[in-house]
TrEMBL record:
It is found in: Cell membrane; Membrane. Belongs to the peptidase S26 family. This is Signal peptidase I. Residues 82-103 are annotated as: Disordered. Its main location: membrane. The lineage of its organism: Bacteria, Bacillati, Actinomycetota, Thermoleophilia, Solirubrobacterales. Residues 17-200 form the Peptidase S26 domain. The chain crosses the membrane at residues 12-36. It is a single-pass type II membrane protein. GO terms for cellular component: plasma membrane. It comes from the Bacteria. The active site is at S46, K115. InterPro entries: LexA/Signal_pep-like_sf, Pept_S26A_signal_pept_1, Pept_S26A_signal_pept_1_CS, Pept_S26A_signal_pept_1_Lys-AS, Pept_S26A_signal_pept_1_Ser-AS, Peptidase_S26. GO terms for biological process: signal peptide processing.
Amino acid sequence: MTKRKKREPWTGAWFLELAIIIAVALGLALGIQAFIVKPYRIPSESMEPTLDVGQRVLVNRLGNRFGDPSVGDILVFHPPKGAETDTCGDPQTGPDRRRPCDLPTKQRADVNYIKRVVAGPGDKLSIVDGHAVLNGKRQKESFIKPCPAGNPNCSFPGTITIPADHYFMMGDNRGESDDSRFWGPVPRDWIIGGAFATYWPPKRIGLL
């Protein structure tokens, strides 16, 4: 007759092991979000038609540490505090409608925005009918939503020069975007990362 193997007494070791596995997995997930890739939900219509309200994108936080953004990149960033009140520069109360704002407020806002880079450090920029005129050349920008006729937010014909280490951000929905035109360029250090893919809804899965 075969003896039944004696069951080892339960010591709780398996529970401890499970707890460690869960803690490690949670730590990895948080670490990935904090330093490598972070999900972001589109909160407004400012990036239509490229990104719709409620759409989810993935933001590469690591790549931002090794290279500078380029014109055309879609970035998540902290705007200046002037973004909350459409203030162009600390001493002013609003944008000069003849030219885009080139004087960001010095304090950083706690909110996150997502926009497209239209000009970088040293570039000369004006806005005509919603299109960026970059270093004297009107950009084609086939991805933008056309500006409605007569919209005062669409033309800032005066030319500005983007300050060193700053980037000028605009939404693709040029007639309905609250962006650098009104509160100025964004310092390099305030950029969180570049959006590189969309993962929700399923029918919009793909690279940006």
